Structure formats: C-alpha cells, structure tokens
Amino acid sequence: MRIDIITGFPGILEEPLQQSIIKKGREAGAVSITVHNLRDYADDRHKTIDDYPYGGGPGMVLKVKPFDRCLQKIAGENDLNAARIMMMTPRGRTFDQKKATELSLDEHLIFLCGHYKGVDERLYSLYKIEDVSIGDFVLSSGEIAALVITDSIVRLLPNVLKDIDSAWSDSFQEGWLDAPYYTRPETYRHLRVPEVLTSGHHERIENWRNEKRMELTKKLRPDLLKKINE
What we know:
The structure is a single chain. This protein folds into two domains: 2-154, SPOUT methyltransferase, trefoil knot domain (Alpha/beta knot), CATH 3.40.1280.10; 169-229, Trp Operon Repressor, Chain A, CATH 1.10.1270. Helices cover 36% and strands 18% of the residues. It has helices at 11-14, 20-27, 64-77, 97-103, 123-126, 142-154, 164-168, 202-220, 222-229, and strands at residues 2-7, 32-37, 50-51, 61-62, 84-94, 108-113, 129-133, 187-188, 191-192.
C-alpha cells in the first residue's frame, strides 16, 4: 500500500509515523508513507497556505492552489484515478472499524489534512474527494485524524502483526466489543483469573468470551447491538 499525507504541519506526523505498528509496517514493506509539506507548493516567498475567507467572518481558509500543485505532483508518479483521496474534516462520515477494513484493501490512499476553517471548496470540483471524520468533535489539526486512520489501517495489512487473528478479534471488527483479557500472575491481591481461562478447554473458553462480548456490548455500547440487528 502507498499512503500520501498532504499537510501544512508535517512535524505533527513525522515522529508518530516512526513508532510502533506503523514503523513495523513500513519496515516490513507492507506500506510506504510519504508526508508532503503543503508549504513546499505555495507560490510566494512566505510559503503562505491560508488566507481570509471571501464574504468575511472569523478564521482562515486553506488555499486551493498548494493542494492542487501537490496532487498534480503525486499524479505524475501514480494514476490518481486509482487512488482514494480523503479529506480529514468534521463534516465527513464518521470513521469506524468497517471503514478501516475496507480501506486496508486499497493500494493507494491520499489524506488531505484540514486546518483552520477548512479548505477552499473549489478543490472538490477539481478532484473526487471523500470527507472523513473521526468523531463529532473538532480538532485543531487534521493531521491527528490522519494518524488515527493510518494506524487503524496499517495494523490490518499482511505481515504487520505477528498474529493477524488478534486484529480480527478486536472490538468492532465483528460489530461488538471484545471480551475482557487477563495475564500473569494468576492471582493478584486476592483477585483470581476466571477459572475457565485456565482450564485449557478451548471450546468453553471461546463460549465464555462470546458471552462476555455480548454482555460488555449490551452494558457499555447498546447502540452497537442495534446496528448488528439492523
């Protein structure tokens, strides 16, 4: 997979993209990630990427030209028709595990990092762009949303996790929350691990985990059960 991230603030991204699972994915050759500094595509000596909105009002708007120039550069290396271009914005569809799984099957993803009041709307007339949000709240930086989505996708790619079954059993993968887990020591401050988990009886253990998945989902996220039953 190839991921391009277009940002006016590359420093927010650079160190996290060199850590943990994302680092493993890059080292394994499962994903290549390129961060493009939007300021490199500005056309003035001050590297300006934003300006005041037409019609007045508070805040600033990201300019269309730097995004366009950067996307054209990427187009010179890869066919943009085969790429999925996504804008990190509160107005987008809320990202979820189903979407992460869907995106993990794509070969080329391009993340556009929103900022300030947003991006000049004309960019949507030039390119097919999908709006994506990570929740009903506002961040100062689309870069943080891009990191969240990148992490959720990379961990699903082949040869990234040692045990891919671990990912497929995560919360939300099948629609409900995952079961509780325990590790050594078997007893801690008089609290014991549930006996079934030390029984060695795989069928009983799986049945117990399925029961706990349903119990936790019903207790903590009943809205998910509604979605499963729809």
